[in-house]
Amino acid sequence: MSELIGRFIDHLAIAGRSPHTLAAYRADLDMLADHLEPLQAENAQPNDLRQALTRLRASGLNSRSIARRLSSWRQFYLWLLRSGQRHDDPSGSLRAPKRDKLLPKALPVDGAAALLDRIEGDDALSARDRAIFELIYSCGLRLSETVGLNMDDVDFSDQLLRIRGKGGKERLSPIGAVAMARLRDWLAQRQAPKEEPALFLGRHGRRLGGRQIEKRLRDWAIKTGAERHVHPHMLRHSFASHLLQSSGDLRAVQELLGHANLSSTQIYTSLDFQHLAKTYDNAHPRARKRRAPTDEDTGAE
């Protein structure tokens, strides 16, 4: 099989594939050869490849990696079929596993507070940034929703925010006290042409773009010593996770996030369970590892 793999890699090289891609194909096909041994590639049947996939799953590979390997195998057998070295494609009936549902990344409560509290500066841009990020965290905003906010979306008397979400659906969200104060600070310095309705503006007095918001948050996270990359959607995830931890009200979190289906919100219960499991491990007397008794424990002097 190694000879066939070599010829296939040569075929890909002639087609202009990059060295990195060639190396990935070779690694995936070498792995297949190991699984099929002593069977030859040209004699492999669908069940043989299915067993190879089963071994990959059993080895602990995630669904994304398995799908990539299966894609390499399919390209290999398609080449064998087209070049007349096989009369069928044993990989045609195989299905890649469903992608693992990745948990959203949220900041811990103290981490979110530390980031937001350390955005300092007396200039208008710093005031704007504090208002943006506090509002995202306070209301669980998507980046597109933040960009699309207008001045008349803020109800200062009732402290409510009108949000235009996916599909043009509108929702109302309470604005927290800190975010409200940051908004007032920003509006005291906001300068824009009268016809500009946008709540958040760039340097030239026009609506601020999503890329600019992402860059500003990334830069502030670096300045404030954050230990990981922070992006606006992480503040939305943090809003949902922290609210669910405190309230346990999944339906309310669904409404505040603007999710059409409860299943989209239920992923945050996994984050909440991780928090509860950690609390259990730290607090339950039978969850922690037992330590050796000391003289003080036994009353010995």
Automatic annotation (TrEMBL):
Q: Which GO terms describe its molecular function?
A: DNA binding; tyrosine-based site-specific recombinase activity
The superkingdom listed in its UniProt entry is Bacteria
GO terms for cellular component: cytoplasm
Q: Where in the cell is it found?
A: Cytoplasm
* Family the entry assigns: Belongs to the 'phage' integrase family. XerC subfamily.
Gene3D superfamilies assigned: 1.10.150.130, Intergrase catalytic core
Query: Per its database record, what is this protein's job?
Result: Site-specific tyrosine recombinase, which acts by catalyzing the cutting and rejoining of the recombining DNA molecules. The XerC-XerD complex is essential to convert dimers of the bacterial chromosome into monomers to permit their segregation at cell division. It also contributes to the segregational stability of plasmids.
The entry's protein name is: Tyrosine recombinase XerC
Locate the active site: R142, K166, H233, R236, H259, Y268
GO terms of biological process kind: cell division; chromosome segregation; DNA transposition
- What ranges does the record give for the region Disordered, renumbered to this chain? 282-301
Task: Please report the stretch or stretches of sequence annotated as the Core-binding (CB) domain.
Answer: 1-81
Q: Where is the Tyr recombinase domain?
A: 102-281
Where is it mostly found?
Answer: cytoplasm
Keyword list, A-Z:
Cell cycle, Cell division, Chromosome partition, Cytoplasm, DNA integration, DNA recombination, DNA-binding
List the Pfam families.
Phage_int_SAM_1 (PF02899), Phage_integrase (PF00589)
Q: What NCBIfam families is this protein classified in?
A: recomb_XerC
Provide the taxonomic classification: Bacteria, Pseudomonadati, Pseudomonadota, Betaproteobacteria, Neisseriales
